[in-house]
């Protein structure tokens, strides 16, 4: 029906008239229509709200998210062959499950042909697969029409050896012959456990007491595997479709058994534990998982291998709670177990989600042991902490002794403090310890994480001797963990600098070994690296790509573009240089693992002409000291767009003084790079060199990224 709208000009002022396709006119009151629509809309909205509220209160509503399921919970979706001709078929459930178990295969055209009659070779193949019969290398089959190159030879030979085919004692097996219901019953009765008792009397109108194979038919029927016809007959010479055969095999699989429950409990718990372990280790080998799966679950595990590649780019860690296993079904060739546990997933330092996981494992037997052929997962969120806000870390330089922090106020937006507490002293692994537990208590009271810095004192040769010796490296790892736990730290900041290029692999190995032990203790590991520079061992000593595989965070020290001994004056961290350095390292380090460190200091450069040469020296200044030097010498600040900083110069006592200021303007532009490239956050060297307003600038920029 087609309707046309015609506004009324006469008569029914509050009406709308529609003309039907056939020309008939219908009209109704406009106000009544509008009121009706409003009432309906209100009802729908209220009903939706009530339903949503009830669901939320009863915890029946779960918001499934495929990305969370895949990356955080490590349960990806997997494509499995879909057979269009069983969709909606009465045997869909049976045929699909047997397909998941690798018992029933489809055809090359991706059909299952459920209504096609089943042959002898097809049926015996299904039975042998279910029973997981072994090939002991001996030849039992002497059928002349089943040569060893026949596709079903292996199955028929195993069945013959097990005694399933004693009834077929002729010269020929006729593998392509349609199998009768009587023959199916005979094979099934042989396949049933020897202690199986006929405890349910059955009778069929066409199976008399003296029927030759009555015992076999009674046994299969009593087990509920083969049912009679609607008219009360058994139809022993009748045929069965592939769908009917699948239903029989399905019922055979689900016969009650008494497999030792401890075996099932240990297997299920171990399988799930190894899944989470593989996710945390980002290991595509899936040890203890892939070799224990078949069918549909094996497809899921192949998808897990692909997910691992994505996990290597993400900063995710999981803490597995106590695993509980409940056996739902313990059948002859099928076991179903429910696994439940809490899983805590941490994304970086600022976001933690606790999930309640309920997982169902469907298992069968292959090669003499349990294998998982399918699984399903449901989850609900117990709690969430933190947000997507980026990390804000600052180093707190400790000269000789940790100061008393009493009265030091909280800095809004600051997440992590890294006191420079520890320095490796010698190859005997003596460590200078300037730590104080009261500092940690103060920091935790203010809501900060504490990641103390472990340095190597820039001693290249001493570091090489430690890194190159496995026992010394292990001793160092243990010492770092020991000190971190002693002072109740939340993480570790590794600041080994000025190492030999040839020691880069050994340093990566140190971080790998340290990270493994740190994760066991719930400690984050961050590693400081310089910007990429192929011409300096201060840079080539780091394999940034490999370091990022093991460390939680890589901190790029985005400063010292012009360092203390630089032969020319220049900015400590010119904006375009910082951005270029960031782009280069992002080719090797995942964005969500990268932290950009910005300078709270600047350098006052002095250029003096001596004996025909310009001698350049410098000294580091805090932000306020830089401003003071400009003011005291009546210098004029000029904005330098290229460096993203104010620049000033002045002459004094025959020398030219130059300075590129770090202030709220320059820091804002550098911190904005963290948002632009969506990295994990920023760090700053060092606390105490900044203006007070700097913290508001950093917090506002980083907070904008989480909106």
Automatic annotation (TrEMBL):
Record-annotated GH18 domain positions: 389-705
Signal peptide: none
GO molecular function ontology, one term from the record: chitin binding
GO process annotations (BP): carbohydrate metabolic process
SMART domains given in the database record: Glyco_18
UniProtKB keywords: Membrane, Repeat, Transmembrane, Transmembrane helix
One Pfam family this sequence matches: SLH
Membrane spanning residue stretches: 33-54
Listed InterPro entries: Chitinase_II/V-like_cat, Chitinase_insertion_sf, GH, Glyco_hydro18_cat, SLH_dom
Domain (SLH): residue spans on this chain: 78-141, 142-199, 200-263
The protein, known as: Spore germination protein YaaH
């Amino acid at each position: 029906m087609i309707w046309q709208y015609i506004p009324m000009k006469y008569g029914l002022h509050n009406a709308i008239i529609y003309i039907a396709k056939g020309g008939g006119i219908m009209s109704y009151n406009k106000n009544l229509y509008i009121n009706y629509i409003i009432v309906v809309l209100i009802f729908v909205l209220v009903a939706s709200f009530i339903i949503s509220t009830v669901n939320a209160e009863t915890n029946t509503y779960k918001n499934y998210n495929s990305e969370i399921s895949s990356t955080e919970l490590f349960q990806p979706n997997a494509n499995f062959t879909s057979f269009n001709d069983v969709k909606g078929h009465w045997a869909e459930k049976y045929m699909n499950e047997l397909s998941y178990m690798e018992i029933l295969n489809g055809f090359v055209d991706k059909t299952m042909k459920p209504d096609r009659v089943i042959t002898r070779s097809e049926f015996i193949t299904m039975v042998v697969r279910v029973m997981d019969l072994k090939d002991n290398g001996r030849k039992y089959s002497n059928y002349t029409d089943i040569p060893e190159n026949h596709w079903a030879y292996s199955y028929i030979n195993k069945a013959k050896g097990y005694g399933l085919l004693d009834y077929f004692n002729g010269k020929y097996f006729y593998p392509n012959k349609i199998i009768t219901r009587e023959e199916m019953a005979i094979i099934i009765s042989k396949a049933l456990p020897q202690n199986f008792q006929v405890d349910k009397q059955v009778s069929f109108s066409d199976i008399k007491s003296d029927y030759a194979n009555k015992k076999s038919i009674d046994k299969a029927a009593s087990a509920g595997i083969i049912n009679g016809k609607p008219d009360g007959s058994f139809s022993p010479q009748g045929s069965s479709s592939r769908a009917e055969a699948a239903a029989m095999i399905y019922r055979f699989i689900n016969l009650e058994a008494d497999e030792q429950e401890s075996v099932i409990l240990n297997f299920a718990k171990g399988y799930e534990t190894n899944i989470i372990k593989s996710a945390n280790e980002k290991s595509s080998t899936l040890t203890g998982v892939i070799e224990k799966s078949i069918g549909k679950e094996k497809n899921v595990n192949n998808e897990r291998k692909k997910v691992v590649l994505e996990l290597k780019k993400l900063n995710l860690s999981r803490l597995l709670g106590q695993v509980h296993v409940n056996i739902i079904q313990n059948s002859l060739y099928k076991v179903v177990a429910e696994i439940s546990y809490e899983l805590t997933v941490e994304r970086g330092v600022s976001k933690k989600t606790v999930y309640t996981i309920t997982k169902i494992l469907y298992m069968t037997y292959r090669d003499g042991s349990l294998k998982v052929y399918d699984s399903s997962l449901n989850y609900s969120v117990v709690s969430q902490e933190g947000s997507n806000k980026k990390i804000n870390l600052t180093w707190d330089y400790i000269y000789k002794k940790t100061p008393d922090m009493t009265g030091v106020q909280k800095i809004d937006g600051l997440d992590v403090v890294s006191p420079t507490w520890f320095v490796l002293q010698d190859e005997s692994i003596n460590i200078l310890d300037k730590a104080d537990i009261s500092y940690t208590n103060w920091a935790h009271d203010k809501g900060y994480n504490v990641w103390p810095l472990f340095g190597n004192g820039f001693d290249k040769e001493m570091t090489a001797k430690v890194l190159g010796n496995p026992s010394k490296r292990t001793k160092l790892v243990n010492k770092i963990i020991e000190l971190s736990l002693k002072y109740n730290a939340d993480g570790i900041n590794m600041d080994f600098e000025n190492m030999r290029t040839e020691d880069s692999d050994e340093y990566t190995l140190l971080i790998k070994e340290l990270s493994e032990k740190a994760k066991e203790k719930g400690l984050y590991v961050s590693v400081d690296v310089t910007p990429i520079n192929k011409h300096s061992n201060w840079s080539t000593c780091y394999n940034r790509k490999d370091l990022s595989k093991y460390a939680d965070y890589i901190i790029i020290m985005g400063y010292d573009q012009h360092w203390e001994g630089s032969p020319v004056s220049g900015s400590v961290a010119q904006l375009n240089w910082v951005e270029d350095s960031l782009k280069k390292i992002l080719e090797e380090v995942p964005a969500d693992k990268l932290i950009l460190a910005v300078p709270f200091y600047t350098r006052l450069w002095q250029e003096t002409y001596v004996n025909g040469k310009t001698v350049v020296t410098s000294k580091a200044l805090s932000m306020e000291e830089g401003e003071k030097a400009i003011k005291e010498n009546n210098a004029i600040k000029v904005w330098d767009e290229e460096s993203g900083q104010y620049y000033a110069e002045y002459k004094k006592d025959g020398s030219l003084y130059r300075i590129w200021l770090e202030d709220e303007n320059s820091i804002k532009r550098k911190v904005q790079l963290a948002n632009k490239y969506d990295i994990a956050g920023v760090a700053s060297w060092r606390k105490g060199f900044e203006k007070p307003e700097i913290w508001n600038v950093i917090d506002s920029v980083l907070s904008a990224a989480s909106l």
